[in-house]
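Contributing new records

If you add data, match the layout below exactly. Sequence lines come first and carry their own label; structure lines follow with theirs. Keep one chain per record. Anything else will be rejected by the validation script.
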Amino acid sequence: MTRETRLRCISSEAAAAVVAEATQPGDTVHTVRQEGAQVVIGYHDLRFPMDVAEWAHENGHAHDGDAAQVIVNVQVGL
């Protein structure tokens, strides 16, 4: 079962950078797409959204609290 979570980025340009970095061609289970300044992360493996959020934060595309919210969401199944 594929789940989704959202990462709020600091701008739509930052969200585009996250999508460009996290896109995995050929992977239909772990996906990313942009909706304005948010990135919608589709996942089966919990590590994928956590890795995307961590990368976004470390590279200045998302605030710490927004990246942490992704981690909370996947841990509680949101």
